[in-house]
Amino acid sequence: MAFLLSRYMDKSFYKVLDFENALAEYFGSRYCVAVDCCTHAVELCMRQQQVQQTSCPTHTYLSIPMMLKKVGISWNFVLDQWDDLYEFGNTGIYDAATFWKPNGYIPGTMMCLSFQFKKTLSLGRGGAVLLDDYEAAVDIRRMAYDYRRMDMPWKDQVSLINRMGYHYYMTPEIAQIGIRKLPTVKQTTKWTWKDYPDLSKAPLFNE
Predict the structure, then answer these.
(1) What is the structure's pLDDT at 9?
(2) Cβ partners under 8 Å of residue 86, min gap 6
(3) Is 111 in contact with 131 (CB distance < 8 Å)?
(4) At 83, is the secondary structure helix, strand, or coil?
(5) pLDDT of the residue at 26
(6) Mean pLDDT, consecutive 10-residue segments, the chain of 207 residues?
């Protein structure tokens, strides 16, 4: 289901909406919100769900536990022998950075994708959230765009900005590359927990 276009949006951002809708159709989710990277996608989901406590696999990418530490969530490392994707505790939020499967969306969840240059859909940088909750999708979209509304000029919204935004949006240029590549992309690499080091040994996470 597409987000409604707004006549107040810069028309270049229509490309982002087109890319989001193409991703939602590909993975089988109701909505998709494109952002600038997967780690920020996870962060926005954590913030939107107001997660207070969770767990993180010992074997994952470095930015994930760094993000949890930055946001101030209470968390602990767990040995999760994941394959393709993993869930943060019982939050319903998935790190799906290495996941790629048509119609693979898990209903009722938030699945965070990565388009980093080594991933299946290689865009250099970028991420997205797949979800089926409209209110959550709107909220995450606003957070990614400095908590702006998309149906009116941002300069007229000063009195409406009552929450933090995070400037994590995907640029139209990246979205355009995604639109071009998506129809022909094929998974070439498969990742598991074994492809990542044990981050619990890093001094940063033992302070």
Answers:
(1) 58
(2) 57, 60, 80, 94, 95, 193
(3) yes
(4) strand
(5) 96
(6) 52 85 96 97 98 97 97 96 96 96 97 94 96 94 89 81 92 95 86 95 91
| CA atoms lying within 13 Å on the CB side of residue 187 | 10
Which letter does DSSP use for residue 194 in this model?
A: G
Which ranges in 55-133 belong to alpha helices (H)?
63-71
Q: What confidence score (pLDDT) does residue 153 get?
A: 79
Place of tokens 């981050």: 199
Q: Domains of the chain: which residue ranges?
A: 11-206
Using a 10 angstrom Cβ sphere, with 0-12 exposed, 13-18 middle and 19 or more buried, the burial of residue 150 is: middle
Burial string for 11-26 (b: 16+ CB within 10 Å, else e) reads: eebebbbbbbbbbbeb
Q: At what angle do helices 38-48 and 63-71 cross, to 10 degrees?
A: 30
The pTM for the full model equals 0.93
- CATH, domain 11-206, list 3.40.50.1970, 3.40.640.10, 3.60.20.10, 3.90.226.10: 3.40.640.10
